[in-house]
Amino acid sequence: MDNLLQGNVLDRIKDIPSKSIQTVVTSPPYWGLRNYGEDEQLGLEETPEEYVHHMVQVFRGVRDALKDDGTLWLNIGDSYASSGQFGKPGEQSIGPKELSYGRAPTPPGLKVKDLVGIPWRLAFALQRDDWFLRQDIIWAKGNPMPESVKDRCTKSHEYIFLLTKSSKYYYDYKAIAEKSIHFETDKRAKLGRVPHKSGKSASKDNQYAIDGVGFSEDGLKNKRSVWNINTKPSSVAHFAVFPEKIPELCIKAGSRVGDTVLDPFFGSGTTGFVAQRLDRKWVGIELNPEYIKIAEQRFRQQELFAPHGSEMEEHDYITHHDPGDENDKRNNKRSYPMG
Predict the structure, then answer these.
(1) What local confidence, expressed as pLDDT, does residue 145 receive?
(2) Within 10 A of 300 (CB to CB), how many other CB atoms are there?
(3) What is the pLDDT of residues 117-163, one digit of tens each?
(4) CATH 3.40.50.150: which residues of the chain?
(5) Predicted confidence (pLDDT) per residue in 41-50, tens digit
(6) So what's the pLDDT on residue 10?
(7) Are 338 and 276 in contact (CB under 8 A)?
(8) Contacts from 143-148 at CB under 8 Å and sequence distance 24+?
(9) Contact 302, 339 (CB under 8 A)
(10) 314: region left, alpha or beta (phi > 0 left; psi from -120 to 50 alpha)
């Protein structure tokens, strides 16, 4: 698997050539939630400010690798301030079902039971670091994790932020357009000219509107910013696996066939898996060698060995951190295709 880089993301992101990535789809470790058992892991910082600082550094490197018209799709969850404690990294072996759960101690400025607000802290920090914060997307989960709380609602959503390197960027809205319910239920949708609620005709460039809702002549409308997507279990992946639908939407909107997709927090490889299914190339970075084994196992189980996605233009990558072996970098061009 020559396009998966093992090691600390702050180090390995430097190995990716400048302006070689079209879109980035990723979900970094959340702050104060779980111990993955790696000394260099992110998410166990003592304060939210330290966590956000590290993430800004990571995505500064990501921005260097991103093309000028590229996009970043960042999924990030929140957590609550607590008096709980984590085990220290390395206290137990970490595998797909061996994770240390807990909450970080309450940092200064927060109270026990406070919602920390990590997603927006990070989004605004990235905005200050010269990213364009284009949109907050709500990932609404129809099957959220049960909670025993009785003094607030059960958490059933996370954020996906769309950030860009430039004010002008590649975005294929047609690739993720969704069906308009009005097209199926309102007979006026079959007409060539459809009255707007204002009483004026809404026909323009094959665009129509019913009750103020726009759609095209094929009944499709622009994708809305609330994505109703259920989580799905995986028999080989760790607990935080993406539903495939999320990277599918991001990759379709943010890249063309043949473009390269990056996930700097690769985990079990869902982003790369979907990228290859969509005929994109991919690069991943992962710190934990156990998760690399999980990803490799997952790819092999799919039995999808298509030739596409095996090379990244003129740039070759190796799986393990061995920067001195230039012969491997030049000659090792095979990868496990993902479907």
Answers:
(1) 85
(2) 12
(3) 999 999 999 999 999 999 999 999 998 888 888 999 999 999 999 99
(4) 4-171+223-331
(5) 665 777 889 9
(6) 93
(7) yes
(8) 143/230, 143/231, 144/231
(9) yes
(10) alpha
- Within 8 A by CB and 6+ apart from 221, the residues are 177, 178, 179, 180, 213, 214, 215
What tokens appear for 232 in the block?
């799905």
Residue of 28, 33, 155 whose CA lies nearest to 103: 33
Note the pLDDT of residue 103. 53
- The pLDDT score that the predictor gives to residue 32 is 62
Distance from C-alpha of 41 to C-alpha of 225, rounded to nearest angstrom: 31
Residue 302 is predicted with a pLDDT of 63
Backbone angles phi, psi at 11, to 5 degrees: -85, -50
Burial environment of residue 35 by CB neighbours within 10 A (0 to 12, 13 to 18, 19 or more): buried
Contact of 98 with 92, CB cutoff 8 Å = yes
Instruction: Report d(CA 119, CA 42) in Å as an integer.
Output: 15
Report yes or no on whether pTM surpasses 0.90.
Answer: no
- As its CATH architecture, domain 4-171+223-331 has 3-Layer(aba) Sandwich (3.40)
Containing 5, the helix (H) or strand (E) segment is strand 4-6
Q: What is the DSSP string of 60-124?
A: HHHHHHEEEEEEEEEEE---B-BS--PPPTTSS--BTTB-EE--PBPPTT--TT-B--HHHHHHH
- For the ranges 246-250, 255-259, 333-337, the lowest mean pLDDT is seen at 333-337
pLDDT of residue 185: 57
CB 56 within 8 A of CB 126: yes
Please give the DSSP secondary-structure letter assigned to residue 174: G
H or E, element range at 263? strand 260-263
Pick from 56, 57, 69, 65: which is nearest to 5 by CA? Answer: 65
**Cα separation, 247 vs 72, whole angstroms:** 11
Q: Which two tokens stand for residue 244?
A: 């495939």
